[in-house]
Input
Amino acid sequence: MQESIWPANCPEKLYDICIEYCALNLDKTLCCESADGQLLLKSEVFLPPNVCDALLSRLQPVSRKHLSLLASPTSINFQHVHVKSISDLTDAELRNLLVHHPTDLRISSQEVTEDSLELISSQSHSLRMLELNKCENIFSRRCPSKKYPWKIKFRKDTTKRVLHFRCPKLRYIALRGLECDPGENLCRILSDLALLTRLDLSDCSINFQHLRSALSQLQQLQILSLYSVALPSLRDAFEAVAQVKSLRSVLEAILLFCY
Output
């Protein structure tokens, strides 16, 4: 018997087909388009969180025109917010995303600053997964140029303020491609993450002393990723890793170091 070319007639497949159609035809189904080209959610539309997340996954890569959809948390609520494709996401736009109280947040932008860390800390009590990818100015402050007031520059905060990063449910954090210098920035982020089980510091610039200090605070850590991290002494690195007794195996950590 010849196999049918049509999808199986079951609720799950029908659900996927509907989500796919809505994602490809937002302006005809869920949204209307404003005069400036922004997508605005129709007033009569309300979507449960599981449908919202499925819809957002079909919109990848998310573009700036989709951000207006995430500005209506009363009608549409996202738990998994993946916007790494918006490389110029600002602090103000991040604030709008955090109104959804996501459990999974992934961003990649050079525009987000230390204000974003404070914002995530204060509004992310339900956050379980956080990925900051190449957010090079995340430990900097935004300030105007003295010579050109209209031009914005990023400066390292030299006041050494103590920021307690409070995301009590966070289990996984990725800080990829960051300049953790001074390394106290890394320590102050990790110090209050008691439930953290997975840490990714790939492509980060850190030194051994700060790595050792940071790891000493993570007694439930199981997976540690240090791809492309330059550590001068392999022996010292092993000693830093060995202090974390909860790691799944020392061999796994060794392989990650030697990548």
